[in-house]
Design goal:
alpha+beta; 196 residues; 5-stranded antiparallel beta sheet; 9 strands; Peptide Deformylase; two-stranded parallel sheet
Length: 196
């Protein structure tokens, strides 16, 4: 089932998400719904806060980036085959010189900006079976993971922009939170929530 994606301005996007356990209700169904929602919105990642749940859970599938000819064949192959579910994730280390990449977010449609992030991360997490992993990711995979990880920490990519950039997009962000935007996927806007 495709779920509505929570828009910029909703308080759930600003909460530090809580840890979940194996007995979290209907987790399998939730994961299926999140995948369907992410693919339905042509996303490469989706975090639980983006569907209104303040829990430490996010998905990543970098396959859409595999078509980009700016990447080597080896990088394209890695991107094509990278799909993960991250539960209770914690980034242990971020390394290297920051690099810029143009980012967007399903919760902040029609806003894309260059964001600086470190190229290499070490992250510990549990998979959908609650098996523990510690892995090192770099390049674009690390960036997508960092972006989704920020969501479970209550951080949005727009928080990482310069004061000037923030001022320039302020009007767009206000319109998004009021639902004054056209998107081709289901969204839930803070203004609509208050009217109920």
């Amino acid at each position: 089932m495709i779920l509505p994606i929570v828009a910029y301005g909703d308080s759930v996007l600003r909460k530090k998400a809580g840890i979940i356990t194996k007995d979290y209700p209907h987790l399998e169904t939730l994961l299926e719904n999140m995948k369907e929602t992410m693919y339905g919105a042509y996303g490469v990642g989706l975090a639980a806060p983006q569907i209104g749940l303040p829990i430490r859970l996010f998905l990543v599938d970098t396959e859409p980036f595999a078509e980009d000819e700016d990447f080597t064949e080896e990088e394209q192959e890695q991107l094509k085959n990278f799909q993960r579910i991250f539960i209770n994730a914690e980034i242990l280390e971020e390394e290297g010189d920051e690099w810029a990449f143009n980012e967007g977010c399903l919760s902040i449609p029609d806003v894309r900006e260059d964001v600086f992030r470190q190229p290499k991360i070490t992250i510990k997490y549990q998979d959908e079976n609650f098996k523990a992993h510690t892995e090192v990711f770099d390049g674009l995979i690390a960036r997508v993971v960092q972006h989704e990880y920020d969501h479970i920490e209550g951080i949005l990519f727009t928080d990482k922009l310069s004061t000037l950039k923030k001022r320039l997009i302020k009007g767009k962000l206000a319109n998004i939170s009021k639902g004054k935007i056209k998107v081709d996927y289901k969204m839930r806007f803070p203004a609509m929530k208050k009217k109920r």
